[in-house]
Write a structure and sequence with these properties.
This protein is α+β, with helices and mostly antiparallel strands. It contains four helices and three strands. The N and C termini lie far apart (about 70 Å).
Length: about 120
């Protein structure tokens, strides 16, 4: 039970007796909590910025032969390409890309590095 005894002091009744709670202390604690909450919110925003954004890859409906031609064309540029790069650039599903790359390697058309 709380009984207000003038401004700014409040008396709180507890099992152990009465305790004075100064309004200034409550205001100071409230200000401290608001600053701490602002710090937590800032930290959350920093962490959210570090979370990788989802990339949506729209897969195209092309024939396997068309995909193979396009993969060959990209490898002719001399760039080091991972299967994930081919999926992103060509819009062809990963399974098809991997199968075509393995086939091209078996035919000696490209070399898949062991460290890749």
């Amino acid at each position: 039970m709380k009984a207000t005894v003038g401004y700014p002091t409040e008396i709180e009744t507890t099992n152990l007796g009465y305790r004075l709670v100064l309004e200034d202390e409550v205001i100071a604690e409230n200000s401290l909590l608001k600053r701490e909450l602002a710090k937590v919110n800032n930290r959350i925003m920093e962490l959210e910025k570090r979370i990788p954004q989802e990339n949506v890859i729209v897969l195209r409906d092309i024939s396997r032969e068309q995909a193979k031609r396009e993969i060959r064309q990209l490898y002719k540029t001399g760039r080091t390409l991972y299967c994930s790069d081919l999926v992103k650039e060509l819009g062809v599903d990963l399974k098809t890309v991997a199968e075509i790359c393995n086939e091209l390697e078996a035919n000696g058309e490209l070399v898949i590095g062991e460290n890749i």
